[in-house]
Amino acid sequence: MGGFWIVKRDICATVFSQRETVERHFLLTVRVPAHFGNALPGQFVMVRLKGGAAPFLSRPFSIYSVSSRGNDTCLEIFYQVVGEGTDIFSKLAEGDLLSIRGPLGKGFDIPPACKTVVLVAGGIGVAPLSFLAQRCREEMGDVELICYLGAGTAESLAGLERLEKICTAVKISTDDGSRGYRGLVTGLFEKDMDRYAGDTVRIYSCGPRAMLKSLQWLLKDNPAVCQVSLEERMACGFGACLGCAVRIRSNGGGFVRVCTEGPIFDIRDVEFSG
Ligand SMILES: Cc1cc2nc3c(=O)[nH]c(=O)nc-3n(C[C@H](O)[C@H](O)[C@H](O)COP(=O)(O)OP(=O)(O)OC[C@H]3O[C@@H](n4cnc5c(N)ncnc54)[C@H](O)[C@@H]3O)c2cc1C
Ligand code: FES
């Protein structure tokens, strides 16, 4: 791991709007400086309340979208309430101030020759993949975009509406079978997997660690390139605390920092059992 780091400064961002889309999942839109317009799918931001109030540590979130609205640049974050910080964020309203650092980390690689993009999203892992789908649609025209979207129940399917507008097809799984395939999203993906083996196919995934581990196993004999976004816990977000280190298989099996060397990795390079 490198011995020095470049720290991006926190900027002050104003909340533009916030709404709950499905239970405990919030779409937060904030006004940000224009340089956020260069953000890449897969990059993330560190967010905390302006003024040092709790949560004291910033929380990392993938960029769900960036767009221009009149003279403003707006950043969307799509998050699930899981603990203290996200519970506090869920009370934010128009005009509230946030401290945001970013865009941070590396984005997904999208080779221009790619003809089929396959997304495998588990729960709120949909956030970076939806931004990726949107960018692919804008920049690669009629690329085939197939999304496998999994959730616990039909009511907790997050981000579906937007994906249905962008993707060629959205295939749904729910753990309880209340919508689509009954079972895990990796099980649904496995049924079609043999279609996705050529040089012009790219697979991208984000979701719980167990899901990514299972996808890695499924792809062991499939030559398609697959990149994943890892959502490790982070404290600093800029390479200083080493709290986000994960073991990789390349370079003799050392550790890398998800915040700076990631959060995007080749799925075959990640040591999920470590
Ligand atoms: C690069 C990156 C991108 C992310 N993008 C998103 C996103 O777009 N939307 C979103 O909802 N979340 C995203 N996350 C996860 C998000 O950062 C955490 O859910 C959030 O920090 C939890 O804060 P909290 O204070 O509410 O929870 P805490 O009070 O800190 O923790 C509550 C519970 O959640 C667990 N938890 C906390 N962080 C994580 C984590 N990273 N992975 C697994 N379990 C965790 C804790 O172990 C605990 O059980 C991302 C994380 C990373 C590293
Ligand atoms: S979060 Fe501190 S090094 Fe990655």
Per the principal axes of the C-alpha atoms, what is the gross shape? globular
Largest sheet data: 7 strands, antiparallel
CATH classification, class level of the largest domain: Alpha Beta
CATH topology of the largest domain: Rossmann fold
Gap between N and C termini: 17 Å
Strand content: 25-35%
Can you walk through the features of this model?
The protein has 274 residues and is α/β, with parallel strands linked by helices. It has two domains: 11-104, Translation factors (Elongation Factor Tu (Ef-tu), domain 3, Beta Barrel), CATH 2.40.30; 116-231, Rossmann fold. Helix content is 18%, strand content 35%. The chain has helices at residues 84-89, 126-140, 160-166, 185-192, 209-218, 258-261; strands spanning 11-22, 25-32, 44-49, 59-62, 65-69, 72-80, 97-104, 116-122, 144-151, 169-174, 181-182, 201-206, 225-229, 245-247, 255-257, 264-266. The strands form three sheets. Strands 4-3-7-1-2-6-5 form a seven-stranded antiparallel sheet. It has a seven-stranded mixed sheet with strand order 11-10-9-8-12-13-16, sandwiched between helices. A hairpin with a 2-residue loop joins β1 (11-22) and β2. The longest helix has 15 residues, at 126-140. The model has no long low-confidence stretch (mean pLDDT 93). Bound molecules: flavin-adenine dinucleotide (FAD) and FE2/S2 (inorganic) cluster. The site of flavin-adenine dinucleotide has 21 residues, from β4, β6 and α1. Flavin-adenine dinucleotide binds at residues 44, 55, 59-62, 78-80, 82-86, 124, 127, 231-234, 263.
